[in-house]
């Protein structure tokens, strides 16, 4: 039964005096080690509230028990939960709605309750921003619970709650919480991905939130939340998973288009923000799979993509796929696309980690047989130039790639095989040799004169140090009997993989006994017995000894 | 409608000329005179027989199965259907058997016999009178020729059989019929199979007939004399030739016989000087009788000796023929040959060609023979002083200097145990075991004293020397470690300079000859040594490199015996390296990589150790961080190693060029204004550029530069400038190595740009030396580039023969024969054919044997019948005789009785 203190806090008029009582209870809660007693106290208070309006003052007591000062690390979660129950009941009972016909004192009570409710919400927000992750998550759940109750039982408050009220607060708290990884992931997995209406409103919140320039950390968070929503509803999707009871007449909530529009707005807001270079790259990376599907009008991405494409380097590589999507689907006209593409074949391309991605696209772009031979030849020549400085994993891609080109553009095969028929020319060649007719500095791939050149580079790579690479390079001097090589098989090789292929993870019995050098050298590091050879160091290892002292 | 049987018979008789118009008496007489009659008679008989056969329906065997559709089956008409005449074939076979098998049976268990080859003996066409006349004519011809008694030539030509120097006077009449060939035939009969012999004899007979008839008959009257002369001359010529050959054979045999004693001696393995033969001359001057007497016992002696030797040989161990000791030149030549072979193998491996199995086998055999050579050397080493030092020089393979590894080399070539030395080996093993039983650690002195005597003969002498040379504190025996920890434990109290000695002693003590387990132990030991090399190099206090070098050389020589173990150890190290620290190599890793370059042939197209090592190096160069000077020093070492790996095979390494140029760009005093080539640039985080103001002199890099240490600014500058010069000289060597590459221009144009930039930077006097280096390299590069431009031609890669377009038309066989097997698998077809042939032959042989058996049985029965009949006849005759006698006696008795009665 009610404790004396509670009894004294019955009257709302004694609100101020109750404030004095609350600290005492809090103190008691802190002082008393007995946790169960605290629990029972809370339970009692809650029950009393449910029992009669006389005990409404208990709400204030409970709120004061919440313990949400910045210094306090451990808010009283049980209190928060019970308060949530209290308010839920009150909202469900309509105690928080003002009726015009109600008596004056009723109105006062309602106003007081609303005030308490706001106070409670603020407390929750504070918890979400400051407390430890478990409390944060609880607070989030409670907050969302309140949102649900409000939207269901307070007619007309619907819009209010989502766009400007409680949900906005929750969202901002979630985004801005300093140590809120768990909170955010909880928010995303439990609410945003689960419930379509929550997602809908989240999109709205994001677009609103990102309308102003934000710091890169915040943007990171927003991107994470947005990219988590990767299930784009199909055109005939029926929205059923609602968190709150949504009016079936609500067209906006039920149409796919409006959802996508919201998402599009959200993404655009982010893309227009001041993104860092790495964010730009990561966005470009998920562009095709995560972003573009949301867009009703993908052409809106055009600016972003062309900007990125012009940045150069890896960013350009990444923008390529999005751009390709636009060109293909939306008939985007990109002037001098191939010239730009050609310029992408630069020194770092083959060493970049987006290499395979680029090659997949390049394969698509150049797969047309209607491309001019001069252009294809330029690409071939340029790639083979690059291969001369490339790691083996890249050479392994380039050679079959070139093979496929030769197969689809037979005009280019002069680059492998050119018989000089003109006697005059042959004599000239014999006397003076020749320079490479290819002009590497020319930016227009149709004017590089590559088709007059030969791919000496690939021929040189036939003597690559790695036997497998050398064997692959040798395909261009054998008969072209194979229709085409499947590029996918060659794309994702690495040094690590190649070494692993050679060494394995553990020693296996060798098929052939390895050959050992038959001559044991007289010296390896030192000048041992040098006078025996007349002081002239030759033989194995003399090169090293010439350069190094040991 | 065919004519009647009678008409047919008449027609055929007329056709074959049996019945014809009557001959006049004159004609008949003429025919009889010239022998035409006999001929005609024979002909007529043959013709009649043929007609009889033709008209006898039982002689012809109908085909077992009537061919159904003559028009469609391929060989319906052409088969011998209806012409199979079993009677004829049977009688033919019978005849043949009678001619061969019967003769054989009759002459079984008999020796000799005469073949009647008298002129015309088996010629049925000749009447006895004709034969006699013919023989007489020949005889008289011969006489005629012989008439001139001064015809010496002819006399000499005449072949005379002699026996023991005396002429064998055969009967004059038989003489010209005799042919040596017959004798030879007889001699070789036993060796030949029966079937074959039949043919030969048939052939022989036929030839005789042809010889006699074919030539003599047609123009008998005119040129009989000439023909006979010719025949005789021919036979004489052949005889002479045969005789000649026989004489040659005899001479040869004699010569061989003379060498027999030498051979015996050679078999016994002792070469004796040729025996002086003084006694023989005495004998020649002596009275022959006396000489004979003197020689008699000697002969007995030799026989005795022969017996003794024979016994010795039977009881002797089976010995192998020894090769004679080779001369120096031969050895050198052989060695050169071996080296050449090895070099060729290396080049083939470099090109990536597979050694075929055959060649490997060949090699195996080669190795085998080498083995034997070495064995013999070894075997001699037990009796003779070893010439190991000499042989080492000749080998050209200088091995661990203080330790005779030649024995090792033997073992590496094959795992076959040396059967020759088994007894010795056993002794050694025994002694080794004894030694083991002795407490190893406790009594060092005893061990020290006993070891030299116990050690292998090869190692013994040198081991002693080494023991004396090294300080006396070292133990003589060390256990063979099982893991690296125990090896470290062993080495704990050993000064680092003596590590090679310890290793050498462990190797000597656990020589695989000494115990069968030692091979495995040493294999493990080799792995530990590899581990130890990297361990030593990683230690903060780096040991002198002469020690590391000597251990590596030990590893190398162990690798010859245990290639798999050593390769596995290296691979394990590489694996650990690539997993734990692919981009930050330790000094130990570098030493291991250097070791790989000497132990294994780096030029191989594929090698289980070298290829991963290459990849590790390339990965490091391609991806490593390049921030500190130490990074660049490691990089410089790695790039030098790369080039070292490629000195022989000259394979292209993109990572090398990338790294070198990048490093030069990073070290250059000023940053290049524009991109100098297609190599990816990675700028270091903190600038390590040469400062253009400080003076710095380049030096040769030292391995300890690899380990990062704090340097004073001047030393740092020195290191920088030496790095630059090293990289420049690396580029210099690389341009030599890859001078022949078709893309030389493309590879080295960026290098030229970088070097020009460097030259630009080094204008100030502080870098005089570096500038000179750069300039000389630049000049060289320019020369190379100019030459590359001169030799550049458009690629001409596809000068292949055009491929045939694949045809989808089924391959039709013309003249398809369903009985023939058109098996596309050549081998299978061949084996099937052989099987079928075998089956057919087998069936044929069985049938023949069966027929032979029945023939033999028949003959036996016939003989028995004959014998029985004879017996019967004899019995009857005897009975009749007795009865006759009895009768006569009875008659006499009767008569006597009657007389007596009459008297009375």
Automatic annotation (TrEMBL), chain A:
It comes from the Eukaryota. Pfam families: CBF. GO terms for biological process: ribosome biogenesis. InterPro entries: CCAAT-binding_factor, Noc4. Residues 1-33 are annotated as: Disordered. Residues 316-473 form the CCAAT-binding factor domain. GO terms for cellular component: Noc4p-Nop14p complex; small-subunit processome. Belongs to the CBF/MAK21 family. This is CCAAT-binding factor domain-containing protein. It comes from Penicillium alfredii.
UniProtKB/TrEMBL annotation, chain B:
Keywords: Nucleus, Ribosome biogenesis, rRNA processing. Coiled coil: none annotated. InterPro entries: Nop14. One of its GO terms (biological process) is maturation of SSU-rRNA. It is found in: Nucleus, Nucleolus. Residues 1-94, 114-391, 414-444, 882-904 are annotated as: Disordered. One of its GO terms (cellular component) is Noc4p-Nop14p complex. It holds the Pfam family Nop14. Residues 37-46 have a biased composition (Polar residues). Residues 179-190, 202-214, 355-378, 421-444 have a biased composition (Acidic residues). Residues 128-148, 224-233, 296-329, 337-354, 885-904 have a biased composition (Basic and acidic residues). Involved in nucleolar processing of pre-18S ribosomal RNA. Has a role in the nuclear export of 40S pre-ribosomal subunit to the cytoplasm. Belongs to the NOP14 family. This is Nop14-like protein. It comes from Penicillium alfredii.
């Amino acid at each position: 039964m009610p404790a004396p203190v509670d009894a004294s806090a019955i009257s709302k008029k004694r609100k101020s005096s109750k404030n004095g009582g609350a600290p005492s209870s809090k103190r008691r809660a802190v002082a008393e080690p007995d946790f169960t007693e605290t629990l029972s106290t809370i339970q009692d208070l809650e029950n009393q509230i449910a029992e009669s309006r006389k005990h409404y003052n208990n709400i204030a007591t409970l709120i004061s028990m919440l313990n949400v000062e910045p210094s306090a690390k451990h808010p009283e979660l049980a209190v928060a939960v019970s308060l949530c129950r209290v308010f839920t009941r009150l909202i469900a009972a309509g105690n928080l709605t003002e009726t015009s016909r109600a008596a004056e004192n009723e109105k006062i009570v309602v106003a007081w309750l609303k005030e308490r409710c706001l106070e409670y919400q603020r407390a929750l927000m504070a918890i979400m921003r400051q407390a430890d992750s478990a409390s944060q998550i609880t607070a989030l759940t409670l907050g969302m619970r309140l949102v649900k109750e409000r939207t269901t039982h307070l007619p007309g408050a619907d819009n209010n709650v989502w766009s400007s009220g409680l949900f906005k607060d929750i969202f901002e708290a979630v985004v801005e919480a300093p140590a809120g990884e768990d909170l955010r992931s909880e928010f995303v997995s439990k609410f945003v991905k689960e419930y379509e209406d929550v997602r809908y409103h989240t999109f709205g919140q994001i677009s609103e939130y990102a309308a102003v320039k934000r710091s890169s950390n915040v943007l990171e968070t927003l991107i994470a939340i947005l990219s988590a929503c990767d299930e784009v509803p199909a055109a005939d999707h029926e929205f059923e998973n609602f968190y709150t009871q949504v009016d079936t007449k609500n067209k906006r909530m039920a149409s796919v288009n409006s959802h996508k529009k919201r998402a599009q707005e959200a993404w655009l807001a982010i893309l227009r923000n001041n993104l860092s270079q790495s964010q730009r790259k990561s966005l470009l990376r998920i562009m095709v799979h995560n972003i573009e599907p949301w867009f009703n009008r993908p052409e809106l991405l055009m600016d972003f993509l062309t900007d990125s494409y012009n940045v150069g380097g890896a960013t350009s590589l990444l923008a390529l796929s999005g751009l390709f999507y636009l060109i293909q689907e939306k008939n985007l006209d990109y002037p001098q696309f191939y010239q730009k593409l050609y310029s992408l074949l630069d020194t770092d391309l083959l060493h970049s980690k987006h290499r395979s991605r680029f090659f997949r696209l390049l394969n698509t772009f150049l797969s047309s047989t209607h491309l001019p031979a001069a252009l294809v030849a330029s690409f071939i020549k340029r790639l083979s130039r690059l291969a001369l400085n490339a790691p083996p994993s890249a050479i392994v891609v380039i050679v079959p790639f070139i093979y496929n080109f030769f197969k689809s553009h037979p005009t280019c095969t002069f680059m492998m095989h050119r018989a000089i028929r003109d006697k005059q020319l042959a004599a000239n060649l014999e006397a003076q040799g020749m320079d490479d007719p290819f002009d590497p500095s020319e930016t227009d791939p149709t004017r590089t004169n590559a088709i007059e050149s030969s791919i000496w580079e690939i021929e040189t790579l036939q003597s690559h140090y790695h036997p497998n690479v050398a064997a692959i390079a040798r395909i261009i001097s054998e008969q072209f009997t194979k229709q085409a090589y499947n590029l996918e098989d060659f794309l994702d090789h690495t040094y690590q993989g190649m070494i692993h292929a050679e060494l394995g993870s553990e020693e296996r019995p060798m098929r052939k006994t390895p050959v050992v050098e038959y001559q044991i050298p007289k010296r390896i590091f030192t000048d041992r017995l040098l006078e025996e050879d007349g002081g002239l160091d030759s033989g194995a290892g003399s090169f090293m000894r010439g350069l190094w002292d040991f | 409608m065919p004519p009647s049987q009678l008409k047919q018979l008449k027609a055929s008789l007329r056709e074959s000329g049996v019945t014809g118009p009557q001959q006049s008496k004159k004609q008949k007489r003429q025919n009889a005179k010239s022998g035409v009659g006999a001929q005609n008679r024979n002909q007529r008989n043959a013709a009649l027989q043929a007609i009889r056969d033709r008209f006898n329906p039982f002689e012809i065997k109908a085909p077992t199965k009537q061919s159904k559709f003559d028009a469609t089956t391929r060989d319906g008409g052409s088969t011998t259907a209806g012409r199979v005449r079993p009677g004829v074939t049977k009688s033919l076979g019978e005849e043949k058997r009678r001619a061969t098998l019967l003769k054989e049976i009759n002459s079984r268990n008999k020796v000799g016999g005469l073949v009647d080859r008298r002129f015309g003996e088996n010629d049925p066409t000749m009447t006895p009178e004709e034969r006699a006349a013919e023989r007489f004519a020949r005889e008289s011809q011969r006489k005629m020729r012989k008439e001139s008694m001064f015809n010496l030539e002819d006399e000499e030509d005449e072949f005379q059989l002699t026996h023991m120097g005396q002429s064998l006077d055969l009967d004059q009449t038989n003489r010209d019929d005799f042919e040596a060939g017959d004798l030879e035939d007889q001699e070789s009969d036993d060796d030949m199979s029966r079937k074959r012999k039949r043919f030969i004899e048939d052939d022989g007979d036929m030839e005789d007939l042809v010889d006699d008839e074919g030539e003599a008959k047609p123009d008998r009257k005119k040129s009989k004399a000439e023909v006979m002369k010719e025949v005789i001359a021919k036979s004489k010529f052949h005889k002479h030739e045969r005789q000649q050959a026989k004489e040659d054979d005899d001479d040869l045999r004699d010569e061989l016989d003379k060498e027999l004693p030498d051979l015996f001696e050679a078999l016994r393995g002792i070469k004796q000087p040729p025996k002086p033969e003084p006694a023989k001359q005495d004998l020649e001057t002596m009275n022959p009788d006396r000489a004979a007497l003197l020689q008699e016992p000697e002969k007995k002696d030799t026989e005795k000796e022969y017996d003794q030797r024979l016994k010795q040989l039977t009881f002797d161990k089976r010995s192998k023929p020894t090769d004679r000791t080779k001369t120096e030149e031969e050895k050198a030549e052989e060695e050169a040959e071996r080296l050449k072979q090895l070099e060729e193998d290396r080049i083939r491996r470099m090109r990536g060609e597979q050694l075929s199995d055959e060649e490997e086998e060949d090699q195996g055999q080669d190795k085998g023979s080498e083995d034997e050579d070495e064995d013999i050397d070894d075997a001699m080493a037990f009796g003779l002083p070893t010439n190991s030092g000499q042989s080492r020089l000749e080998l050209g393979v200088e091995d661990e200097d203080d330790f005779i590894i030649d024995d090792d080399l033997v073992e590496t070539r094959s795992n076959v145990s040396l059967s020759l030395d088994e007894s010795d080996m056993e002794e050694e093993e025994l002694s080794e075991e004894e030694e083991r039983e002795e407490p190893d650690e406790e009594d060092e002195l005893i061990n020290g004293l006993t070891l030299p005597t116990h050690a292998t003969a090869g190692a013994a002498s040198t081991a002693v020397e080494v023991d004396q040379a090294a300080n006396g504190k070292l133990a003589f025996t060390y256990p063979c470690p099982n893991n690296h920890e125990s090896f470290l434990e062993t080495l704990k109290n050993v000064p680092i300079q003596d590590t090679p000695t310890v290793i050498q002693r462990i190797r000597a003590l656990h020589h695989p000859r000494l115990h069968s387990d030692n091979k495995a132990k040493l294999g493990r030991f080799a792995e530990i040594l590899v581990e130890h090399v990297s361990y030593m190099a990683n230690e903060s206090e780096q040991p002198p490199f002469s020690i590391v070098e000597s251990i590596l050389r030990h590893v190398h020589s162990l690798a010859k015996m245990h290639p798999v173990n050593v390769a596995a150890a290296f691979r394990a190290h590489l694996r650990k390296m690539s997993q734990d620290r692919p981009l930050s190599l330790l000094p130990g890793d570098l030493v291991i990589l250097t070791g790989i370059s000497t132990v294994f042939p780096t030029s191989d197209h594929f090698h289980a150790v070298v290829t991963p090592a290459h990849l590790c190096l390339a990965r490091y160069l391609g991806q490593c961080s390049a921030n500190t000077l130490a990074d660049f020093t490691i990089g410089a070492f790695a790039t030098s190693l790369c080039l070292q790996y490629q000195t022989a095979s000259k394979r292209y390494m993109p990572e090398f060029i990338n790294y070198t140029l990048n490093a030069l760009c990073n070290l250059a005093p000023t940053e290049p204004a524009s991109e100098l080539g297609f190599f990816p640039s990675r700028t270091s985080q903190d600038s390590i550029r040469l400062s253009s103001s400080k003076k710095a002199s380049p030096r040769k890099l030292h391995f300890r530069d690899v380990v990062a240490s704090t340097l004073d600014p001047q030393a740092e500058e020195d290191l920088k400038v030496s790095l630059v010069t090293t990289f420049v000289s690396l580029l210099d060597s690389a341009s030599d190595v890859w001078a022949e590459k078709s893309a030389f221009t493309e590879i080295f144009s960026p290098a030229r740009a970088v070097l020009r930039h460097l030259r630009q930077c080094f204008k100030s006097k502080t870098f005089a030396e570096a500038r000179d280096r750069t300039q000389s390299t630049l000049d060289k590069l320019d020369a190379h580039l100019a030459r590359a431009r001169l030799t550049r031609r458009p690629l001409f890669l596809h000068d292949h023969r055009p491929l045939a377009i694949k045809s989808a038309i089924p391959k039709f066989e013309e003249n398809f024969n369903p009985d023939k097997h058109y098996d596309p698998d050549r081998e299978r077809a061949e084996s099937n054919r052989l099987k079928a042939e075998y089956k057919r032959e087998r069936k044929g042989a069985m049938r023949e044997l069966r027929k032979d058996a029945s023939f033999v049985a028949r003959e036996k029965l016939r003989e028995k019948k004959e014998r029985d009949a004879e017996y019967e006849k004899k019995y009857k005759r005897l009975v009749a005789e007795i009865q006759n006698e009895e009768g006569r006696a009875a008659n006499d008795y009767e008569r006597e009785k009657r007389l007596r009665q009459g008297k009375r």
